[in-house]
Amino acid sequence: MTDVVREALRTTADLPHYATPEAVVAELQPEYPVYCVRPHAIHRAARLFLDKFPGDTLYAVKCNPAPHMLRALYHAGIRHFDTASLAEIALVSQLFPDSVCYFMHPVKARSAIAEAHSRYGVRHHVVDHPSELQKLSEVITANRDVVILVRLAVHHTGAVYDLSSKFGTSVEGTLALLAKIESLGFSAGLCFHVGSQCLDPDAYRLAMESVAEVRARSPIALGCIDVGGGFPGRYLNDPVEGVSSYIDAVIAAARGLGELEESRLFCEPGRGLTEGGESLITQVQLRKGSALYLNDGIYGSMNEEQTGLRRPHRMVATRDFSSRRAQFTVYGPTCDSLDILPDAVELPADLREGDWIEFGAMGAYGLACRTAFNGFFPNTFVSVENEFEADASPVG
User: Which of 49, 100, 305, 326 has the greatest count of CB atoms below 10 A from its CB?
Assistant: First the structure.
């Protein structure tokens, strides 16, 4: 065990610790799903952003709000948090009183705005519409310590999720909002989001072109420019180079804006920080010919498969498996026929009830989006110190 791994494991000292998923299965023989947390992988991802990004790295809490994930990121050096609700602000503030929360949801309840400001000291808010700005001004007494960021809409086809279909305003709308923010007595900033799981680093350059247009047409000083999230995870059908090239793209795009002394850069990685930090051990509970029934599925940790993401997987080596492969239809545990992985999965042909399959890339939106439908709710966590390495690919 390296010193880095040993130090990272301290952040999950409250979790049972194992060397490998094989060791987990050997001891627990679990008939329930088990999340394998890899704190060293979380630490590695966090340090990449903290060491390379030329500004503040805000972790997007919505991606994975589990205390073990938050503690691992904090231990690695993350002190800034992109929060979308009062509940997230309260969670982060309770765990880390010295942290800084940013209320980055463009639509907020008045009570949430008031409590975030007065109780938790939140001083950054996002708007994309005059009515939301008016709401903020009626709840918070205007002063320059409060920064209101206007969210620019960015439509880019290179992302799996287009987040500007719901939020964001045009350049013209941004200019009007900035002028109003200035007249009210708040400080101003800009933000955008190129879309979750962005597959093209050039999206940041295109978004920054809109920022440049706003800066050229507005005399309002911008206290910060937030490039949002979009930093991708590694999935089988999305062979991205890794987030380092995306940070490089942001740096190059920021340089293209010229002098930015008055503007602090923010980024909001979620998936890019957490995707590789967790995997999930599942068990085959029934085989019907070429159909497998697992103890987790679409209503549990595998919800993103519905949107096209394909997580890597491997057999937990509890026995010798056949070298012959076969395609399987994979069902989750609920009674709903929609609880099925969209594509066939290639696995050893002699797979049987009781075997365990480990799915990687579970750190982002796996546990955050799980439900308790039919009473199935994956909620067991252990820490492991090995690296996840896939041994098969889904076939579709």
Answer: 49
β pairing state of 313-315 and 356-359: antiparallel
Mean pLDDT, the chain, integer: 92
Q: Domain span at residue 358?
A: 3-37+276-395
Q: How many independent structural domains does the chain possess?
A: 2
Q: Indicate whether 282 and 237 sit together in one domain.
A: no
Q: For residue 396, is pLDDT > 60?
A: no
pLDDT of residue 247 exceeding 70, the answer is: yes
Confidence of residue 393 (pLDDT cuts 50, 70, 90): very low
Which residue, 209, 240, 274, sits at the end of a domain? 274
Are 126 and 206 in the same domain? Answer: yes
Q: What CATH number does the domain containing 188 carry?
A: 3.20.20.10
Q: Is 90 helix (H, G, I), strand (E, B) or coil?
A: helix
Average confidence (pLDDT) over 315-325: 96
Q: What are the φ/ψ torsions at residue 15 (nearest 5 degrees)?
A: -100, 145
Domain final residue, candidates 274, 300, 333: 274
pLDDT at 262: 73
Q: 183 and 330 in one domain?
A: no
Both 16 and 63 in one domain: the answer is no
54 and 16 in one domain?
no
Half-sphere exposure of 314 (CA within 13 A, CB side): 14
Model pLDDT for residues 45-101, shown as the tens digit of each residue: 999 999 999 999 999 999 999 999 999 999 999 999 999 999 999 999 999 999 999
How far apart, in whole angstroms, are the C-alpha atoms of residue 171 and residue 218? 10
Nearest to 316 by CA among 353, 359, 277: 359
- Using alpha carbons, list the distances in angstroms from residue 182 to 85, 225, 305: 25, 16, 44
Contact 193, 154 (CB under 8 A): yes
Predicted pLDDT of residue 395:
35
Residues 107, 380: Cα–Cα separation, whole Å: 33
pTM, rounded to two decimals: 0.93
Q: Do residues 78 and 17 both lie within one domain?
A: no
What whole-number distance in Å separates Cα of residue 344 and Cα of residue 305?
12
| Residue 280's CATH number | 2.40.37.10
Question: Which tokens belong to 134?
Answer: 């008016």
Contact between 127 and 151 under an 8 Å Cβ cutoff? The reply is yes
The pair phi, psi for residue 359, each rounded to 5°, is -100, 130
Positive/negative CA dihedral, 167, 173, 175, 180: negative
